[in-house]
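User: I'm preparing a small set of examples for a lab meeting where we compare how different chains pack in three dimensions. I only have the primary sequence for this one, and I'd like the structure in token form so I can line it up with the others. Please keep the answer compact; I'll paste it straight into my notes.
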Amino acid sequence: MFLLNNLIAIDHYLFQSINSFAFRWLWLDTIGIFFAKSLVYLMVVILFFFLLKSTKNWKMVSIALASALTARFVITGLIRLVRPRSRPFANSDVNLLISKVNEQSFPSGHASFAFGLATVVYLYNKKWGVVFFTLAILISIARVFAGVHWPSDILAGAIIGIFSGWLINKVFVKYVK
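Assistant: Understood. Below is the structure token output for the 177-residue chain.
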């Protein structure tokens, strides 16, 4: 129980430390809102540019999308049914930059989706994989900054996305020719 209480305290401390920067500077809030809400769509657009560059990239693109969708809608969805957790704005005074979301907080669907994409892209193209992981990290920090996720939600989402990317790629490579 002592360990759990300490982890919760660390989670709340990290949340407050990041979220406390909201509403200080308009430029930072604007960037944070864009990263929290829209940067994930830019990741998908960039992914489709790989297809325009070469149709040989269809495998990477399809595995990345399958991984991200599995992470976000299957694994994250199941965990949310079993282990519901309220969002930060439901329990405390938060600097909320984006509209309230009527879903459970744990784990982060945005983080699982973004890290699922990033993992597969990294497995096929290290340089672009680093770019995608950087974007996934920015999205994740922005979700805390905007007041809609606890840091532990993000960490769990990242783990789910990375695992999903690795697993879906392994299955696809082994069973799909």
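A couple of notes for your slides: The two ends are 49 Å apart (CA to CA). The chain has one domain: 2-175.

User: Perfect, thanks.
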